[in-house]
Task: structure prediction
Amino acid sequence: MKYKYLLFDNDGTLMDFKKAEEFAFEKAYKSCGCEEFMPYSNNVLKLYSDINDSWWKKLERKECTKPQLMVGRFADFLKAMNITGIKAEALSEAYPKHLSKGGFLFEGAKELVEKLSKHYDIYIITNGIGFVQESRIKECDYYPYIKGVFISELLNAVKPDKEYFDKVLSIINAKESECLIIGDSLTADIKGGNLANIDTLWFNPEKAINNKGVTTTYEAAVYNDILALLL
Ligand SMILES: [Mg+2]
Result:
């Protein structure tokens, strides 16, 4: 392979973000005293998840801002639960603190990174809140095998913008042709690669259809396919 550098997305590619979200919500719910009104259960989680999803859809339609989403989802949740006396701000403050402890790797992710690290320099490219991503990544098992982490908030640029990848490449002093982006998101990772003229490997465990008008260089449904391609 012609590549020297592998730029790995984190969430949905190496880490289970859904699990981290559920973990953080449960911890925030309990630490803010919500259990005085209703013990934590899957129904409570389902109610919050639906409200959370609807806020993310609002954000996509540009009907709210990210800070409004951060608090608004908890305000709606408390209202739906008929919980009074607990502030949405308390939940929205507790949530990212717990999220920062939620570094759950997919099975085989550490071994994947470890094996590839013998042949390539590996960097993590991730959108998200600086302290949350930094702590999740530094405490996880793949950390000893990577060379560095690029978090959008700290870089002042986000995937898929070309500016984000330009900054990453200039810091590691790499040419576009020496890099391969590996990620699960067509709109963040693969589109980013297309915009920045970097080859991409779409990690697609769901075997979804590419309907976003982007071009993938390679595709893999399981980690072994990635290893077969790159080793
Ligand atoms: Mg991802």
Notes: The radius of gyration is 19 Å. DSSP finds ten helices and six strands in the chain. Strands lie at 5-9, 121-126, 148-151, 179-183, 199-203, 218-220.
